[in-house]
Amino acid sequence: MTGWLGLFAASKPVISPAGPRDAAAIAAIHARSFHRGWSEQEIEQILMERTTVADRAVEGRKLVGFILSRVAADEAEILSVAVDVRRRNKGLARGLLQAHLGRLAAHGVKAVFLEADESNAPAQRLYARAGFTKAGQRAGYYGGADGRRATALVLRRDLV
Fold first, then answer.
1. In this model, does residue 154 exceed pLDDT 70?
2. Is the predicted pLDDT of residue 144 greater than 70, yes or no?
């Protein structure tokens, strides 16, 4: 009986490198996750750059999350992280981030930076649990749908 029920169990997401063919799926998740979503063309361009490291989470045949970084010398900047709204709060972003940090370390990256909206509590928890600390802030960096400007926290994590 348990074998039969297993047919309906959700498959565990598989994390693997992302490429230009993933641009449309990444753009769709990005658009649902941020006030100003990036277009498929913008994401495809990022994915085609040699300095980009990108990972995706795929469940079955569906892309359900991604993380994009740009590497410069021995530093990297995380450009964007997002998980499909139906898959949030299940540890997927944490798994994506950990796998991605491992790939960045394998590329010789020693320090990782990112910017996060100071009002985004889930992002703050994710990054704090992953060992990121505040390195600075940018007042009025993000524009909201209501026209208000939000502060971006600049976070850093050393990998070595």
1. yes
2. no
Residue 92 contacts residue 57 (beta carbons within 8 Å): yes
pLDDT digits over 77-108, tens only? 999 999 998 888 888 999 999 999 999 999 99
Q: Residues 96, 89, 54, CA angle at the centre, nearest 5°?
A: 20
Q: Is 84 helix (H, G, I), strand (E, B) or coil?
A: coil
Give all domains of the chain, ordered by start, each with its CATH number: 12-158 (3.40.630.30)
Q: CB 45: neighbour CB atoms within 10 A?
A: 14
Bin 5: left if φ > 0, else alpha if -120 < ψ < 50, else beta: alpha
Is the overall model pTM greater than 0.85, yes or no?
Answer: yes
Cα distances (Å, whole numbers) of residue 150 to 85, 133, 138, 139, 141: 22, 19, 9, 7, 6
